[in-house]
Amino acid sequence: MGVWLAAAVGAVAYFVLGAAWFTPLFGRVWDRSIGYDRATGGGRFPISYYLVPLITALVIASVLGALAHALAIDGLLQGTVLGAGMGIATAAASLTNALTPHTPHPYLFGAVTGGYHFVGCTLTGLLIGTLG
User: Fold this and answer.
1) For 58-68, how does the pLDDT look when each residue is reduced to its tens digit (9 = 90+)?
2) What angle do CA 70, 72, 73 make, to 5 degrees?
3) Which terminus of the chain, N or C, has less C-beta within 10 A?
């Protein structure tokens, strides 16, 4: 399939995972972590709420694709390890970003958001390693 097409597939999978992660799976927990109530919050989120995660999924998948290409990553295990490494780094940054005076439950936010990035990056790396 090629590493770049595999990275594009990984980016789409990462984005779709986010749709599931932040709505039916952990949406209420994430809302609580930032002090938001969807029922009274005014309804729909702005378009940036969807575009920014799509763009960042594309950026992360592109970096994983470039690393996979440069390191000659080949196979499910190598791709998964690469993705998990990127996921740990991204999850750590998520926790750091959560530690603001305006986030009511920063560790909860960090756990939900960091968990998403860990799983999303691992999935993307797995796809790149397997399909690339």
Assistant:
1) 999 999 999 99
2) 110
3) N
CA distance 5 to 81: 19
Q: What are phi and psi of 43, to 5 degrees?
A: 90, -125
Token couple for 107? 């560790």
Please name the residue ranges forming H helices in the chain: 3-20, 27-34, 48-70, 76-98, 106-131
Burial 69-84 (b: 16+ CB within 10 A, else e): eeeebeeeebbbbbbb
pLDDT digits (tens, 9 = 90+) for 43-86: 677 899 899 999 999 999 999 999 999 999 989 999 999 999 99
Q: How does DSSP classify residue 120? A: H
Burial 42-63 (b: 16+ CB within 10 A, else e): eeeeeeeeeeebeebbbebbee
Q: Is 96 helix (H, G, I), strand (E, B) or coil?
A: helix
Q: Where are the beta strands (DSSP E) in the chain?
A: none
Place of tokens 């209420």: 28
> pTM for the whole thing?
0.92
Answer whether 82's CB lies under 8 Å from 68's CB: yes
